[in-house]
Sequence to fold (1402 residues):
Amino acid sequence: MQCYTQLLPPSAVTHAVALPFLNAHSRNLVVVKTCLLQVFRSSTVTNNEEGSERSSKSKLVLIGEYPLAGTVTSLAAIKAENTKSGGDALLIAFKDAKLSLVEWDPDNYRLSTISIHYYEGENVINEPFGPSLSESESILTVDPTSRCAALKFGAKHLAILPFRQVGDELAEDGEDGFDGEMDDAPPSAPLKRTQSGMNEVSADEGKQTPYKSSFVLPLTTLDPALTHPVDLAFLHEYREPTFGILSAPVQPSAALIEARKDILSYSVFTLDLDQRASTNLISAQKLPSDLWKVVPLPLPVGGALLVGTNELVHVDQSGKMSAVAVNEYAKLASNLAMTDQSDLNMKLEGCEIGELDTKTGDLLIVLNDGSMAVLSFRVLGRNVGGLKVTRVSAESGGASVEVAPSAVAPINTNTFFVGSEDGDSSLISWSKSSSSLSRKRSHAQMLDQAAAVEEDEDSESLDEDDLYATAPEPAKRTSSSGAAGSAAAASYTFELQDRLASLGPINNICLGRSQTSKKDLELVAGVGRGKGSRLATIRKESVPTVVRTEEEVFKDAKNVWSMSVNATQSAAKVESKKAEHDSLLFCFDGEQTRIYDVNPASEDSSRYNERTGTEFEHDGETLQMASTLNGTRIVQCRRSEVRIYTAADLSLSQIIPMSDDETDAELNIVHASFSDPYMLVLRDDSSVMVLQADKSGDMEPLDNTDPITERKWLSGCLYTGSLCPNETIVCLLGEEGGLHMFNLPDLQQFYHAPTLRYLPPVLEAGAQQRRVGAKETLTELLLTDIGTEDVKEPYLVVRSAMDDLTLYQPWSATSSWKEILRFRKVPLDYIPKFDDSGSEGDGPPAPLRHFRLGRYSAVLIPGASPSFVLKESTSLPKVLSLRARDVKTTIPLHLPGRERGFGLLRPSPSPSPSSSGEEPVTATCELQECTLPEEAEFSTGWCVHKQTLGHPAEEVREVAYHEGRGMYVVATCRDVDFLPEGEKEDGGRGKGDEASLHPQVPQYTLHLLSAKTRQTIHSYPMPYLETITSLKIMPLEISEQSHEVRSRIVVGTATQRGEDHPAKGALSVFEILSVVPDPHRFPHDPSARAETGLKLSLVSREETRGAITVVESFPGGLIGTGQGQKLMIRGLKEDGSCLPVAFLDAQCYTTSLKHLAGSGLWLAADAWKGLWFGGFTQEPYKLTTLGKSRTRMEVVSAEFLPFDGDLFILVVDAAMDLHVLQYDPENPKSLSGTRLLHRSTFHLGQFATSTTLLPSSLLPVGAQPVPNGHANGEADTTQILRPSLYHVLLTSLSGAVGLVTPLDEGTYRRLALLQTQLSSVLEHAAGLNPRAYRAVGEARAGGLSSESEGLGARGIVDGEVVKRIWELGSARRVEVLGRAGMDGWGLRSDLEAVGGGGVGYL
Fold:
């Protein structure tokens, strides 16, 4: 009984496509991150900062994101008829032969599903001994004119999905139908589930859908030789849907290159969708065996480009081939005639190709290492005379991409997007120098062009009767020579515009102590591949950087305000300009309000100088302070009046009393909102007053209209922003819970949404109110802009009586936004923090407020532990919590050196209590001047800081934390050339080895990294060809006489020179020694220079016959290793040797070895035999096997999960399934414990890289060591209290971080019922089924039944579905909770437990 929840969503981009999605004139980018679909638009922003050159850049702006209950395999744009938005539709392909056709719904401003198509029905017959559907690669391709789409699935099956075109209705009306079975089918609905077959959709049904009846046929019906298809794609310039397919009669193999050289063939087939027939047009034989991709080319080139690992081959419509070799291995792998460009030394494995210039037909090639090249064609009339590949130099922007691409999508004419699974994705713009465009042609070139034109005219006259010829387009057919193509390629310049941050893939993680607070931990991970790899520090809460602390001035403070004022006397002469630094600070101590002048140049106590002798009213309570009229007036909101002062000398300018107009009764101010030149005051009788400043600076109340005077108001705000840039509006929350908007200055109501109290998914003015149903008690609203300085978007923030936050984003389909204004609910993962330590009195909570924080426009959620609602341009709004406690007030501070920072008013650290029993000292307060961490990312709602290691950046593979030294030990690698045996020693080459392009192997290095300064202290290079497979810091017994235990660094390595050489291994033990600090390093940082007095020293090195695949700490200061096909327990001796004391014959290579701290239990996993579970005893030393899992489980990672007296084991396999096993020797099915009971299986959808056992902070745990997969050797582990609740943290290749939480019986039943209710109530993107996505069938489980099947099955609760309950309205949510037997408070408690509340120490 467990629950799986994602703490961080996937961030590695797997697929991308650009299309007009929102409307016919837009250009949007759709990105898929494994199982998360995001829709972006491109926005141009201008840099207007002083001192910098004015420039403009393109940025990606997120429109919406939608989790998908499926793993996406491909994307394609469809020009469908009669879409809701008028733009294109999107065709999404999933695993196991599934297609979804979606479009954009402008009425609800979200994704809408048109249809879903399944092709894994029983009528699809697979070969008895062939690969299964899940083991076969799926290929999706779409006709350029969107006449049909083709999905290759299984081994040899091809599904054709035709789409309706203009004029199809006339053709169908003129015929009675060719299939009688199809005429009897019922009419269709907007959403249809289609199955593979010939009689799925009727002709009448097709009229109401953008697609027609699909059909499935084996590829061998097209041509019996298509037994091993490699790739296929639809081609341009054909009147009928025509595709080219690359195939072979036998399976291509690089190991059998001599016997299977040039076995591929390229065939072109045209489809007759009405008759469901095909015709073979051309066939090109004896193509290189390493071709793997077909790229269709539009005009002016045409044909198809075949991409191989060593060459590029172009095939035109007549079958004529032109090829170019890009490395020296092309001539060895194929006998095809090619142009020699082997000096490029390019590797085309995993490259992506996109269209660069539509006029010339040039293509962009992004290679596997991130480098770029331009492919140009020498076009002569209708023929391609040759290909030219030119690398893009670093000076021209060729280094803009650092990692391997996964997709290339041209967005605009000069902007394209490069997605990557190995690091950050990039938005890149390109330009072309004008010199190449105006280059004068030679006389020979003009003669070649004239000859080409004559040849073109002759070919057109001969091809007039050709069925597959296209209309002549002589204007688009240009001729160019190879020299011109080379010059054009060299003239391209690329520039990085924006990045899409990614945490994928996560290679390895560890937990370390935070240097700001020893009680808190931080998650450190090695992320990315190659040059894009980084060492990432991930925190659940952001640790503010405290720049300065002031205690003397604020020791009695209750509230503080800071502001920037302008000394100009006349408000009429002041123009809007750049905000200046804060110059005044007001401090209320409970009785008086003091004024301080801020001296930015001072860093001591003279920074704040008290000002006296003004007309400012010091006595009495001050509720709020603000500046208005561009800083020329200062407003003081007191309990029952508003005082206005001039900013120059704080002379009193005006007093506005708060009283009832009819009874003259004194009213108290509850809240005030400001927006030049207006001020909104909310009073305790639920009335509001709106004031406007005139040219002289005096504030005068506006005449209230009937809607404002007749109603009672709970909250309100003034808004001026991106929704209405040139005007100010008033937003009010009515007593009945409705939203009201008024124009200024006439106060005429233009918008009223009475259903806000129900918190519907879509809020609109004309919605009907429900007569019954639960209503949410709303207390506050705020309409403000959230985003960055470049991109801001309006959001409506609504707070309930239970402190829940709901976000709405306004949108309008027309330019007159006031007439058709709607709000859509935006998902926000936020659970209120209830902390009574900072509350004083029974007054209302501090209101939400707009906050300028660094480069962000945010919303402050005040409290004892404040939070901010932030938004990056590429993410949805997220709640970022600060790691600060007992905060009384959070204020913005704009000071030199800490621009757009913030101040925290907190109690000073209390002195030690007196032992004489005297009266305790009253706690004083201090003001901490803080900023957010520099270069940190907050797009996930967590604080992520990345840093590179090495120059150039090296790939971070392993990381561990040494608590005694406060250091991180990081293992990195970089690619070096693989040299034949003997070449490294004598410097010569082997016999016959004259290659200049060598294979690449990793060269590893150990780095000692400071946890405080993040500086590299020392580096230790590993031997050549030695791969670090495991790195741990563990307690080792360093003496057999004294039995002293100390922490040591243990490194397991493997060496494999070739398949004909045996694998070797080595077990190395390192120690961190103290040496003399280097005086030349860090001359300006004494603390960093002092840390240079540490060095890695090799203590022991034991070479083994088999590879060391994994190391783990075992009781008694011993080292557990997976050595070859054995499990070996080793001990360190005084002489530096590391001898084995116990072993177990595992008969396979171990991939995971874990030990449960505080016990002798261990588990070992491999990729063939599954999981082994056993115990270890020290007297005598012995490894004992207690139980095993079922066989044929390809284990990637495994971890213990003890809970409530039971021992569970979590196993993640290569099929991305999470298995829960239990050791229960008392169960008869376990055969006395020798068989691990298989309790449940859950499909993750992410390829896991690690599993880590973490203690939970939800229950008292006592003193604990750093949970780094081992106990601290310098602490007495026998005195450590073990927690009663654990979590398992899972990381993945996609950058997602998940959490598995064990549940008791009552919690499991509630959440399981809630998941069942939500699965049927919520709308799921692309029409997918989340229960079917998470379920694992018997076939995937290896054909073996588990103890979880049948009646009483206990599956894992999908926390991602449970968290979506906030998408429902309040009435529907209460109804669903009632069916599940839950209430609001119980839901919050359960969501906190499964949503990461137990790992709040991160």
Observations:
- The radius of gyration is 35 Å.
- The longest strand covers residues 55-67.
